[in-house]
Amino acid sequence: MTVGLVIVSHSARLAEGVAELAGQMAQGKVVIVPAGGTAEGRLGTSVDKILQALRQAANPSGVLILLDLGSAGIAAEMALELFRQDQECPVMISSAPLVEGAVVAAVEASIGSPLQAVAEAAAAATSLPKLPSSAGGPAAEEMPPADQQT
Questions:
Q1: Per-10-residue mean pLDDT for the chain, 150 residues long?
Q2: Is 140 helix (H, G, I), strand (E, B) or coil?
Q3: Residues labelled catalytic
Q4: Which residues constitute the domain of residue 60?
Q5: Do residues 91 and 80 lie in contact, with contact meaning Cβ atoms separated by under 8 Å?
Q6: According to the model, what pLDDT value does residue 129 have?
Q7: Domains identified in the chain, total number
Q8: Which of 67, 88, 96, 110 lies 20 to 30 Å from 125 when distance is taken between CA atoms?
Q9: Is residue 65 domain-resident?
Q10: Where are the beta strands (DSSP E) in 15-129?
Q11: Per the domain annotation, does 32 fall within a domain?
Q12: How far apart are CA 99 and CA 72, in angstroms?
């Protein structure tokens, strides 16, 4: 079994999209469960949705939870407390960037790495560059505003 991933976002569509992207990168070898939005379908987080996702992703190799924004962490911690009452699966919560962290974690999990290595790989995604340094043009922050470009 590989480490499972739970993607927690305030948006169901965002969680689903990140799970889809990471799943493609892991070539279907990793269980990735989105837990986004509220039970009513609005923006927000749901302890129940996260708990259900944890139960789906649970396995002896463990689960890594990735989050979008701060309060998602509070909901994830609450769900984890409930989860641990009836499961003995190792779980870690990551503060990695959501998209990059999920993709890197999925790839790392897909090669059979243990939970700690998957978590470390996700955390290292913080330093991944967004733009290649040899792109030949100025980086976005160096470009003049659109109305001043010629």
A1: 97 98 96 96 96 97 95 95 90 96 98 98 91 60 56
A2: helix
A3: 10
A4: 4-128
A5: yes
A6: 86
A7: 1
A8: 88
A9: yes
A10: 32-36, 63-67, 91-94
A11: yes
A12: 15
Token readout for 65 is: 């939870």
pLDDT given for residue 131 in this prediction: 83
Q: How far apart are CA 68 and CA 71, in angstroms?
A: 9
Can you give the pTM of this predicted structure?
0.86
Is residue 23 situated within a structural domain? Answer: yes
Distance of CA 39 to the CA centre of its chain: 20
Q: Find the CATH number of the domain harbouring 26.
A: 3.40.50.510
* 18-51 b/e (C-beta count within 10 Å ≥ 16 → b): bbebbbebbeeebbbbbbbbeeeeeebbbbebbb
In a domain, 61, yes or no: yes
> Taking the mean position of all CA atoms in its chain, how far away is CA 75?
15
Q: Residue 32 in 3-state DSSP?
A: strand
CA count, 13 A, side-chain hemisphere, 69: 10
Here the tokens at position 103 are 């993709």
